[in-house]
Specification:
By secondary structure, this protein is an alpha/beta fold. 29% of the residues lie in helices and 34% in strands. The N and C termini lie far apart (75 Å).
């Protein structure tokens, strides 16, 4: 009886193995030669059309190469269809590292095409950035060796850098497409370098389903300080002190205290930022452009820098009272704490009072 059972088991395993071999032999294989595997994708407007540009893997026997494709149409699906027709391959976005969005396509609410089947394969963690024109970046050499898709990985790896902001596909879907909130997205600017193009990330855009505003360099840094996603944020803050004088503050750590209270019928939001800086690596220079005549900070310099950065921060925190963009999600914070009291108050914005203070904390050793 036992032998019979064992024989049956071996027979079943043998048949299963045969089926697997036959299935693998005759099933269609989606290799690099039959799929257009996009690692970077860009969306922008050109007249009435949407232009899609991708950097994709180029199959090569000896080494992996990359090639750029572009297509346009009235919809993203049509633009991708043109790329597939010209390349003779079906596009795959499953390995896409980064999405470049032109400012215009965000402002005109064309980003809502994320809800279509055309981009359903995009990974949740694909990095999203804004730029003037994706075509100026995708397929170009960046700093001699890097590719447009490598920017996404660079952003992910530098999250402890004070000036780096990561926004991924999941963030955009949760906050923007749902209509629930404001997205702050870094804006990349292109400059010509000696070995290709250089990308500078010192500005941002803040947008929701109805409005888009630009954040300048000072507001962008202020946002990063106030939100302080990582307490171990490190980096350099450059502050112009008048004339040609400037300071390069070497930040070691950022801590931000936030409070949201209802006092006498008003909504009071307060922010206090503590910037730990490395005293021995922070200097005042008399000529910013040439980085000349370095000297250490005095107490007076500290106060001047604190005041300058406080101005940046207060410029940003007062944005909610001047337009429909709630950059710091202040309404959400009050709503979470006070629920229906806030939800039913149509005069919330009129009663909102926001203030912020910046403190430099000297650190003499790393």
């Amino acid at each position: 009886m036992v032998k019979k059972i064992l024989k049956n088991k071996f027979f079943i395993l043998f048949v299963a193995l045969i089926i697997l071999v036959v299935t693998a032999r005759f099933s269609p294989a989606y290799s690099l030669n039959s799929r257009l595997i996009a690692l970077a994708i860009g969306l922008e407007k050109e007249g009435q059309n949407i232009v899609v540009t991708v950097e994709a893997i180029k199959p090569d026997k000896d080494k992996t190469g990359y090639q750029t494709f572009s297509g346009k149409g009235l919809t993203i699906s049509a633009a991708i269809g043109e790329i597939e027709a010209n390349s003779g391959k079906k596009m795959s976005l499953a390995q896409c590292e980064i999405v470049y969005l032109s400012r215009e396509i965000i402002e005109q609410n064309k980003i809502s095409h994320y809800e279509t089947k055309a981009l359903k394969e995009l990974p949740e963690l694909a990095v999203n950035v804004c730029c003037d024109s994706p075509k100026e970046i995708i397929g170009k050499k960046i700093n001699k060796e890097n590719h447009s898709f490598s920017v996404g990985n660079t952003i992910r790896e530098n999250q402890t850098n004070l000036t780096t902001l990561e926004v991924n596909n999941k963030d955009v879907g949760r906050d923007y497409l749902s209509g629930l909130g404001t997205v702050v997205m870094p804006k990349i600017e292109v400059t010509e370098g000696e070995n290709g193009i250089d990308l500078v990330m010192e500005k941002a855009v803040a947008f929701n389903k109805y409005t888009l505003v630009d954040l300048d360099r000072e507001e962008y840094i202020a946002y990063l300080l106030l939100m302080a996603k990582s307490k171990n944020s490190k980096g350099d803050i450059k502050v112009t002190l008048g004339g040609t004088n400037g300071a390069s503050v070497k930040v070691d750590k950022v801590r931000t205290n936030r409070s949201y209270e209802i006092i006498n019928g008003n909504y009071i939001a307060k922010y206090e930022v503590y910037i730990n800086y490395l005293y021995n690596e922070t200097f005042i220079v008399s000529n910013e452009a040439e980085n000349e005549n370095k000297r250490k900070l005095t107490e007076s310099d500290e106060k001047t820098i604190e005041n300058a950065v406080s101005l940046w921060v207060n410029k940003l925190v007062n944005r909610p009272t001047t337009n429909d963009i709630d950059t710091l999600r202040i309404y959400d914070r009050f709503r979470a704490k006070y629920q229906n009291v806030v939800y039913n108050d149509v005069d919330f914005m009129k009663k909102l009072v926001v203030s912020a203070k910046v403190n430099l904390v000297k650190k003499t050793e790393k």
